[in-house]
Design brief:
Blueprint (H helix, E strand, L loop, with lengths): L2 E4 L1 H8 L4 H8 L3 H10 L9 H6 L15 H4 L2 E4 L20 H10 L15 H11 L8 E3 L8 E4 L3 H17 L3 E3 L8 E5 L2 E15 L18 E14 L7 E4 L10 H80 L6 H17 L26
Parallel strand pairs: 4-7
Antiparallel strand pairs: 1-2, 3-4, 5-6, 6-7, 7-8, 8-9
Helix pairs in contact: 2-3, 6-9, 7-8, 9-10
Length: about 400
C-alpha cells in the first residue's frame, strides 16, 4: 500500500494550518489516532475551540516546536494513504465564513476607516470616570493587583502602575462599542461584572493583568520577621501584560485576547469587536438549542403524564373488575345457600313452609341481588374509553 512520508517539522506545520479532523482524513486515520501520534512525538497541537476563534478573526500565538530528543523524533513519519472514497470529507473548521453577522462584522472591521485607534487621553465617559475613581481608592503598593468595585464601574483587575493604560484601553473599547451600536453597562447591585449588549445578548467583559510570584528568600538581603509566626516568603506583582476577556455566565462564547510584545492589546480591538459578535451568535444558538431541548423535555413529560394517567385508570378498572367478580361470587354463594336451605326445610315440613321462612328466604335473595354487580352494572363500562375516564362504582351502596 502506498504511503506518505513527512518530517516532524512538516507535521507540526500541518496541524497548525488546518484542523485535526481534515488532516486525519488526508492521512486515512482518525483524529484521535493523529493526536496520539503528535503527543508521542511531542508535537504541540491546537486546543479546543482554536479554529472557531480563527474563524471569528482571533489570532492566537503559535507555540514553538521542541527540539527532538530521541531517534524516533528525528526519523521520518510514515502514513498509509487512505483508500479512494466517494464520500465528501468533513468540512474544515478553518474555512472562513461567507455570510452571517460574524462575516459582516469582519468585513466592517477590515475597512481602513473603521480601524480603532487607541486613545491618548481619557474621555468624559461616566463609566471610565467611575472606574478611575475605584482604582484610585487602592492604597496598596503600585505593583499589587487590585479590582474595581461599585455601581457603574467596569470590571478591571490590574496593578496600580498599569491602571492608566487599562483605562485608556477600556475608553477606546467603550467608544468603539458605542460607534457600532453596542451598549456597554457597568456593574450594578449584585452583578459585579461589566457587560456589553450585542444582538440582544449580554456579554460580560473585563481587563485582567497577570501576576508573577517573587521568592523573597532568594534575595541576599532577605531577613524574616522574628515576630511573625509564618514569615512572608513571597511577593506578588503585576507583569504589565493585560488580557481582555469576554464571555457569558454559562461559559458560552468565551474568548481571551492576550497582550503580546509585537501585538499590543490596543491593536486587537477590531478583532475584539468581531469576537463580540461571534460570542453573541454563539450565545443565541445555545439559547435556541436550549429552548428546543426544553420544549422536547416538556413534550416528553406530557406524554409520560398521559401514559401515567392511562395506567392509573387501567389499574382502577382492573381493581373494580376484580372487586365486582368477588361480589358476584358472594352473591352466588348466598343464592345457592338460600336454595339449599329451602330444599332442606321443605323436606322437613312436607313441602309447606311457614310465612316467616318465606320472608327469610326473600331477604337472602334481596341481599344477594344487592351484592350482585350484574344486576346493576353496564357491561359497556368495562371497555376502555378515549380519553380514559374514571371507572364508575358499579353496584353496592
Amino acid at each position: 500500500m502506498p504511503s506518505t512520508t513527512i518530517t516532524r517539522e512538516g507535521l507540526f506545520d500541518l496541524v497548525w494550518s488546518q484542523s485535526m479532523r481534515s488532516l486525519a482524513v488526508r492521512f486515512g486515520i482518525s483524529d484521535v489516532a493523529l493526536a496520539k501520534r503528535c503527543r508521542k512525538l511531542r508535537i504541540p497541537v491546537p486546543g479546543r475551540g482554536f479554529w472557531a476563534r480563527v474563524a471569528a478573526g482571533h489570532r492566537d500565538r503559535r507555540p514553538t516546536l521542541p527540539a527532538p530528543r530521541t531517534a524516533v523524533e528525528r526519523s521520518p513519519i510514515h502514513f498509509a494513504e487512505p483508500p479512494a472514497q466517494n464520500s465528501t470529507p468533513p468540512p474544515d473548521h478553518a474555512v472562513p465564513l461567507t455570510e452571517g453577522p460574524v462575516w459582516e462584522q469582519q468585513q466592517f472591521e477590515s475597512l481602513p476607516q473603521n480601524r480603532i485607534v487607541a486613545r491618548k487621553r481619557l474621555s468624559r465617559s461616566p463609566l471610565i470616570h467611575a472606574t478611575a475613581r475605584s482604582l484610585a481608592d487602592h492604597h496598596g503598593p503600585p505593583e499589587r493587583r487590585t479590582r474595581t468595585y461599585g455601581d457603574g464601574t467596569l470590571d478591571v483587575a490590574v496593578a496600580g502602575r498599569s491602571a492608566r493604560r487599562a483605562l485608556l484601553l477600556l475608553d477606546s473599547f467603550v467608544q468603539a462599542c458605542a460607534a457600532r451600536g453596542f451598549v456597554v453597562e457597568g456593574a450594578r447591585g449584585n452583578r459585579r461584572e461589566s457587560r456589553v449588549t450585542v444582538l440582544d445578548q449580554h456579554i460580560s467583559f473585563r481587563v485582567f493583568e497577570s501576576e508573577r510570584r517573587i521568592d523573597l528568600t532568594k534575595d541576599p538581603g532577605y531577613k524574616p520577621n522574628p515576630r511573625e509566626l509564618f514569615p512572608r516568603r513571597y511577593r506578588h506583582e503585576g507583569t504589565g501584560v493585560l488580557d481582555l476577556q469576554i464571555g457569558s455566565p454559562y461559559g458560552i462564547g468565551r474568548s481571551v485576547w492576550i497582550d503580546y510584545s509585537d501585538l499590543p492589546l490596543e491593536e486587537q480591538l477590531n478583532e475584539v469587536m468581531v469576537g463580540l459578535v461571534a460570542a453573541a451568535v454563539a450565545i443565541g444558538e445555545w439559547q435556541t438549542e436550549r429552548e428546543r431541548e426544553e420544549e422536547e423535555h416538556r413534550r416528553l413529560a406530557a406524554i409520560a403524564r398521559a401514559e401515567r394517567v392511562q395506567e392509573e385508570a387501567e389499574e382502577r378498572r382492573v381493581a373494580q373488575l376484580v372487586a365486582d367478580a368477588e361480589r358476584w361470587a358472594r352473591a352466588e354463594q348466598l343464592r345457592n345457600f338460600a336454595t339449599a336451605m329451602e330444599a332442606e326445610l321443605r323436606s322437613r315440613e312436607a313441602g309447606r313452609l311457614p310465612v316467616a321462612t318465606h320472608a327469610w328466604l326473600a331477604w337472602v335473595h334481596y341481599v344477594a341481588d344487592e351484592l350482585d354487580p350484574a344486576m346493576l352494572a353496564d357491561p359497556v363500562a368495562y371497555l376502555p374509553r378515549e380519553p380514559v375516564a374514571a371507572v364508575p362504582a358499579w353496584g353496592g351502596r
